[in-house]
Amino acid sequence: MDLLHKQEHFSCFNYEKGQNAQLEILKRPAGMIFERNLVDTEIVFPMKGRFRLSYGAFIREEIDKGNIMLFPPGSHIKVEALEDVHLIICRLRDVVQLCECISLERLYDEFGVTKGFHMLEMNERIYTYIDLFVNCVNDGLQCSYYFATKMRELFFMLRGYYTKEQLAAFFSPMLGKDAQFMNLMYKSYRQVKSVQELAEISNYSLSGFKKQFQRVFGTSASEWMSAQKATRVFQDLNNSPLSIKELAERHNFASVSAFSTFCQNKFGMPPGKIRLNIEKIEQERLKVAKV
Question: Which of 19, 41, 57, 181 is the most exposed place for a label (fewest CB within 10 A)?
Fold first, then answer.
C-alpha cells in the first residue's frame, strides 16, 4: 500500500534513517559469509534459507528458517549462508519487559539462568506479526515510535504464546536481578580493559561496583570479563584466518606463550589443538554431507 503524506514522515525527526535501524531486512545469497559485532540487543527471525551460525561456544551450528534467536549487545556472530538467506532483525534500545506483570527479573527469580543457546520456534501468530511489520516498513512507515510500539507488541505475543520456561531459556543471556545494569555491562565490556574502567562507566565506586556486579551476575566482574574474553578467543580460533601469533596480539596478550597458557586454562588445550579439533569436525561434516 502507498503511505500517505510521505514527505511529512521522511522529514520528521523520529523517522529512522541510515544503518542500525530498529528493524532491518537482511538478505544474503548462498555461499556468502558475513560477521557482525552487535551494539544493541537483537532478536533475529530467519524467514528463509539455512545457514551455519558461530556465536560464543556455538560453533558452525546449522540453523533453519522458523527459529527465533536472541543476541545480547556486545555479541560477535558469524553466519555462513548455505542457501539464500532472508533475516528480519529487531533491535532493542531499551530494557526488555515482557509485560507489566512479568519482568526478566521475575523470570530470573523463578528459573535462574539456563546455560546454552536457546531458540524459540516461530508460530502462526509470529509469522503474521512479522509479515505485517515488514510490509509497513517497506511502505515507508519507519517512525521510531512505531518501532517501539511494535516491540511492545512482540513482547506481549511472546508472553501470550510461549511458556515461562521457554522464555526464561530464550532470554537467559539477559536474565539477572537488574536488567538495566546487565544491559549496560553487555554494551560496555568490549570498550574497556579492566574492572575499574567498567566501574567508571557505571558511575560506581570500585567496591560498590564489585558488590553490584556480584549481586546481578552471580560471579565476580573479573571472572565474567575473563569468560567473555575466552568466548571471543574461542570464536576467533574457530573462525578467523589469523595466525596464532596474530590472534595473541589481537586479544592483547603479552606473548604467544601467555596466549597458550590462557587457552590451556580455559579450554584444557593449547590454541593449535583447538583449531585442529574444529578442522576434524568439519571434515566429518563434509563426509556425512557427501553420503
Answer: 19
Q: Evaluate whether 211 touches 205 at the Cβ level (below 8 Å).
A: no
> Could you report how far apart the first and last alpha carbons of the chain are, in Å?
48
Tens-digit pLDDT profile for residues 196-224: 999 998 889 999 999 999 888 888 999 98
Ordered domains of the chain (ranges, CATH): 6-174 (2.60.120.10), 192-290 (1.10.10.60)
CA angle centred on 230, ends 189 and 197, rounded to 5°: 25
Give the helix/strand (H/E) hosting 26. strand 23-28
Q: Which amino acid is at 291?
A: V
Angle made by CA atoms 143, 28, 38, in degrees to the nearest 5: 55
State pTM to two decimals. Answer: 0.73
Q: List the one residue out of 114, 126, 117 whose CA is nearest residue 46.
A: 126
List for the chain the helix, strand, coil content (%; round to 5).
50, 20, 30
